[in-house]
Structures are given as C-alpha cells and as structure tokens.
Amino acid sequence: MKTDGGTDAAKRRAGERAAEDVEDGFVVGLGTGSTTAYAIEAIGRRVGDGLAVQGIPTSFQSRKLALEVGIPLTSLDAVASIDLAIDGADAVVDAPGSDAHGTLVKGGGAAHTREKLVDSAADRFVVVADPSKLTDRLERSVPLEVLPAAHTVVADRIRDLGGEPSLRAAERKDGPVVTDNGNLVLDCTFGEIEEPATLADRLSALPGVVDHGLFVGLADATYVGTDGGVEVRQY
Ligand SMILES: O=C[C@H](O)[C@H](O)[C@H](O)COP(=O)(O)O
Fold first, then answer.
1. Per CATH, the architecture of 5-137+216-234 is what?
2. Which of 9, 100, 112, 227 has the fewest Cβ atoms surrounding its Cβ within 10 A?
3. For 106, how many CA atoms within 13 A lie in the half-sphere containing its CB?
4. Ligand 1 centre from 228 Cα, in Å?
C-alpha cells in the first residue's frame, strides 16, 4: 500500500498535520488508505501521550490499524456527533472558482461507502493528500459499490449514462473484489466529468448502487503534503 520517495513523505506530512487538529475529547472519523494511515499512527502516538479520543473506523483496514496503535474505538450509532473526520482521496479537484472545487473521487480501496457515511456525519471533514491527487479536470473512474445481484443491471444503466463499467477484480483471489460490506465494485469511466454533482445524483438514483465514490460538497479542507510542508485548501 505504501509508496516510496517524495510521495510517501508528502503523505506523511499531510496525515501528521491533520492529526494535530484532533483535540482532547474528540470523536474522530478514521478514513482508509495509505495517507490516512499516517494520521491514524500520529493520533495513536498522541493517545499514548494522554490524549483522550474515540475513533470511528471506516474499514477493516483502518479499524485494525487503530487497534494496533491504541486508539479507543466506538461506532456511529453510539455517538451523538463526530467532531472531525480525516480521510484520503484518489482525486481532489483543485480549480478555484469552479463549482467542482474540492470535489473528491474516493474508493480506490473499495471503502467509499462507509467513508462517505462517516465523513459526511462529521462536523469537519479534512482530506489528506499528496500533490499527485490534485487535478483541475476530473477524468478519473468512479467506483460504485453495488449489490452482487445488481452488478449486470447497474452496468447496463452506466452504459445508458454514457459510461463504461468494469467489475473490479481481486489481485490475489480468483473473482471480484468483495467490499467490507459484502458487495462488488464497478469502476466506471465517463471521460471528463464536467458536472460531478449531476453525475453524483444520477448514480445515487440507480437501484442496486449502495454508494459511489464521488464526494461533492463534503470536504471542508484538503491538507496537501509537499516537499517542504503542507498546503491547506479551505472550502
Ligand atoms: O477506498 C479507499 C479510500 O477512498 C482511500 O481514502 C483512497 O483510495 C485514498 O487512498 P491513499 O491515501 O492510499 O491514496
């Protein structure tokens, strides 16, 4: 999962900067992926120094890491609110002045359904990224988590919308990726996505789609790790 060189250092800077925003008593949404992992590890170190927090993981992976680094865990149905969510992204639209500024594509690790649930429930949602994630044109494929019985029907509807679906294959198992929720993933290309909010609404309306990886209007800030520090985008 980890990358090397400058990108890995940039991910670390972004993740560790976000972990500094966690305050005593916070309930924290713990996103998924290699960048968020640095935030989780940093929060764990602060817990070791006496910080009192409760984490809500968004995947098997983030739960396992949080337990390893000593973050006490809770669940969405056990808390009144989430103070802060920290999560990575596969693409972040960086186009100030555009309606799409701050739109995300997530789900490269097939965790986007629970991520969206937790990130959207948080009072503040901070994205952590390295510069390779920033884009002024949204051309990345959009992951859809779909009920297994629905994958062919949803694939047909995606073609009706002008997209091209591809069932995500597992790398070290015959057959498809199965999400933490027991569903399948369709990666859907649409060429350049000029109106992500419109596409998001259309995808959400498809029966059999549990959730999609377009995060429109959800992020409050992106922390971009760079060679020398961290750049902050506020939305
Ligand atoms: O499903 C996975 C998540 O949306 C991740 O947050 C996303 O793929 C970014 O992961 P990474 O920080 O490893 O690039």
1. 3-Layer(aba) Sandwich (3.40)
2. 227
3. 31
4. 23
